[in-house]
């Protein structure tokens, strides 16, 4: 249906509605009459769940022949035209475990099926199918002999869908994170915290005119989620908000991808600073190197340990460890820490060989940095910890100086930070370290270290 025909349809519906209201008032001589209540259903009882109905599906569209009744709570709305000819409903008002959609040939369906309404659907005669991993029910659509779920014709909608009597329920969206999404979350009302539109999206409208448009949402750990907007939505021409915050909507499945559809702009509350500002606010020198390892008996068991002396966790989005090999004054290799969070008063372990690390120390490291990385230093290199803005937060060694025979050599040994140290330093401070090696200068301990007994990864 074109945008013009949609507009014409609405005009007809509203005209008929006004005529009916006029006729009603013309027939009433006394204004002391009871307000008309919409018809509701109090006798239908559900006898199958959404989960059980989905199990009935056998990899091809089928017509339901059983006298089944399903129930759910409406979570979508076409009041702002971001949903079109579809109703989404879920199996409970909060903490839903399943959701479903029904295709209907109806505009302005929110006038009949409001968000929070409990609906009961007679399933006999309807079709059940799945398109790109999204389950749906409705009428039938046939193209070149292929049968799929289509829109339920308008004159059949009220033969199948009934609103239960009683007040509409208040829905509580399920608060989720992007990495934790599961298939049973599809078709339910969800909420995400600490999301923002990607920097590349800023300055764009919610949607292109008359075109379904995808906009990229990200969290502060760079996990991604697509926001799906209609080109006919009332908010289509509004600029995307620049902040960070919560967003609520109906989660849909599109193949292997999850996408989010909002009902209106009140579903978005981006009232906080963006992630980069958030990270900047909490960036501090409470993150620092705590142990560096080059075991004499097993160079593949090397590692770098960093520690967070604060009590609060910190996202390491944009953080890096840089390695300056020997006397190099330019970066030889680096390890990105984006995607990792270091808990309060906890360590983060970076290894060039996680399998060997596990064999030697009995557990897996947090980060697989690979060979020739900063975690693979042979003890005479210089290491630098930098925040997302390139600021040096902590350093081991002196850039431009080969560590061999110096007070920053840990070849065949170990460098461990003194326990009283609780902050990083952008200048190497030998007094903050206890260093074991095979040939370092006075003040270091010329005693090679053997793994695992001489090392304490994960213990500060």
UniProtKB/TrEMBL annotation:
Every LTD domain range: 281-400
TM region(s), chain numbering: 7-26
Pfam families membership: DUF5689, LTD
Swiss-Prot/TrEMBL keywords: Membrane, Transmembrane, Transmembrane helix
Keyword Transmembrane helix: yes
Name the record gives this protein: Lamin tail domain-containing protein
Organism: Maribacter flavus
């Amino acid at each position: 249906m074109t945008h013009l025909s949609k507009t014409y349809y609405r005009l007809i519906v509203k005209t008929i509605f006004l005529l009916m209201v006029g006729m009603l008032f013309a027939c009433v001589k006394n204004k002391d009459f009871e307000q008309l209540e919409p018809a509701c259903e109090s006798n239908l009882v559900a006898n199958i769940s959404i989960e059980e109905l989905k199990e009935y599906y056998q990899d091809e569209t089928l017509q339901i022949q059983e006298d089944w009744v399903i129930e759910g709570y409406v979570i979508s709305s076409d009041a702002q035209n971001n949903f079109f000819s579809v109703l989404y409903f879920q199996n409970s008002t909060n903490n839903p475990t399943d959701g479903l959609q029904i295709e209907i040939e109806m505009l302005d369906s929110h006038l009949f099926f409001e968000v929070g309404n409990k609906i009961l659907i007679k399933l006999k005669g309807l079709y059940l199918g799945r398109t790109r991993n999204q389950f749906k029910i409705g009428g039938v659509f046939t193209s070149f002999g292929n049968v799929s779920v289509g829109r339920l014709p308008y004159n059949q909608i009220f033969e199948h869908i009934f609103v239960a009597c009683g007040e509409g329920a208040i829905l509580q969206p399920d608060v989720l994170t992007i990495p934790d999404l599961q298939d049973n979350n599809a078709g339910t009302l969800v909420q995400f915290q600490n999301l923002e539109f990607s920097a590349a999206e800023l300055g764009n409208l919610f949607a292109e005119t008359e075109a379904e448009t995808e906009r990229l949402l990200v969290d502060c750990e760079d996990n991604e989620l697509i926001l799906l907007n209609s080109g006919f939505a009332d908010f289509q021409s509004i600029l995307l908000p620049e902040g960070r915050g919560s967003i609520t909507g109906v989660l849909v499945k599109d193949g292997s991808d999850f996408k989010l559809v909002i009902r209106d702009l009140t579903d978005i509350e981006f009232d906080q600073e963006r992630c980069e500002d958030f990270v900047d606010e909490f960036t501090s020198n409470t993150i620092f190197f705590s142990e560096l390892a080059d075991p004499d008996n097993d160079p593949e068991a090397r590692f770098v340990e960093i520690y967070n002396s604060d009590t609060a966790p910190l996202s390491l989005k944009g953080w890096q460890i840089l390695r300056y090999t020997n006397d190099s004054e330019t970066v030889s290799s680096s390890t990105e820490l984006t995607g990792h969070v270091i808990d309060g008063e906890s360590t983060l372990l970076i290894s060039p060989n996680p399998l060997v690390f596990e064999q030697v120390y009995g557990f897996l490291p947090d980060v697989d940095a690979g060979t020739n990385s900063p975690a693979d230093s042979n003890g005479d290199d210089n290491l630098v910890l930098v925040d997302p803005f390139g600021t040096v937060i902590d350093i081991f060694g002196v850039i431009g100086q080969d560590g061999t025979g110096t007070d920053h050599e840990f070849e065949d040994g170990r460098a461990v930070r003194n326990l009283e140290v609780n902050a990083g330093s952008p200048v190497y401070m030998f007094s903050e370290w206890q260093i074991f090696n095979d040939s370092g200068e006075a003040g270091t301990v010329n005693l090679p270290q053997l793994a695992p007994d001489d090392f304490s990864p994960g213990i500060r």
